[in-house]
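Kindly inspect this chain:
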Amino acid sequence: MQSELVPSAFSLQSCESRISGAGCTCIVQLPLEIIEAILSILPLPAVSAFAQTCKTYRSLVYNPIDNHLWRTLFLNQEEYDDPRLVLGQEAHISWDSLLKQWTAVSKVLHAHAPLYTIEVLRTLIQMAEYARPAKQSLQFDSRNLEHLRTLLRSSGFFSQTVHTSGQEGLDPDSDVELAHMVSRLKLYAGLEAIVSTPSRRLHARSIVYDLRNYHKGNDYGPFIPDGGGRVHWKHLYAIHEVIALNIMDFAESDQGLPMSMRHIQPQSIPRSESADARDWAGLEGKWQVIFCFCDHRDLLAFNRQHTMHATPNPSVFQEEDFEEALRFLEFELSLVTAEEPSETIPHCPARPTLHFLGKISGNARVKGRVYMTPDEQVRWSFMSGEPGQTIWSTEAIQVGGIASAFGALGAWTTVFHDVDDPVGPMWLWKLPD
């Protein structure tokens, strides 16, 4: 490999042989600290090339005595946020591994036909998870998220076919982990990843309105059906698709809706200066809520076909008289209590379960809690109805980081959980004061 910093014929011996007379200084005479300082401001290809010139410099670059060089190189990259803003200043970070990994993935996605292996998808999700918290409400300034959006858009990730595991056109459904990762990334992209075709809409509705996807094993929401409370990203993305496509149909404009990559940034939620210090989720205030639903007779017709077919038959959704509706409500929520850390999920002691009460448009009331899932996602669980007549139950997941402006997506049904109870998707996001 040719060096971009020095000629290919460079060697310590040839350099030393040219040293003669006062005022002549060769790089080998410089202290290693000075050389490291110079390397820290160079492009990565130049650093890599310089490391190949001799064993001493290779060791300086790839076996440093501390993290200074690679930390500086990472922080000098214009595309990335400082991960310590998420992980903490004292977090142990392998700066060289992180930078090499993120840089390598960027190169993979710039290829003519990028392949989305599990390793590539994990890295892309990590970029999203390491997005810096917003400095203030509704200020979207994450380099990670902007870089991630650019990578996904330029690599064709938002197209219908995603190439995975080294096979062109492989259906992500053939690999559960791949399918969840692809769904998660497309969810983070918001409206930009939505493909408005009849087949995609049919697929999403077939997941969202399938009553078999709501039972005690998944808490009647978008969770893995093993009772563990981990997010089912395919289900959650289907919810997103149904809502997004309905918005495109019914809303006059989707401009201003917080449903894009930048809105998943942590702490970007609208928040007042007088907010309760315990309210880590930013739940206090006014929220816009969208509920989607179809005619209950259509819902039952679709689900009863499962007894006659090995696979769901979504022909009901293709009938000319099939309709899906949206209902807009406004919640005004107040924090009631925050549990003590000892009572909450042990892996997130700084995020105690928050209990809230609220008013809904009209005379209805809502009561619920916000807490962390075992896979460290923010979960919303609440019930609502007229005073003394609680009817509705909702389970949702905050999209993106803690207190993201994107809000939460989930599913609603009744508190009774009877066999033929209605179900549907919902989305709530916080409104500015």
About this structure: The longest helix spans residues 233-250. The two ends are 58 Å apart (CA to CA). The chain has 13 helices and eight strands.
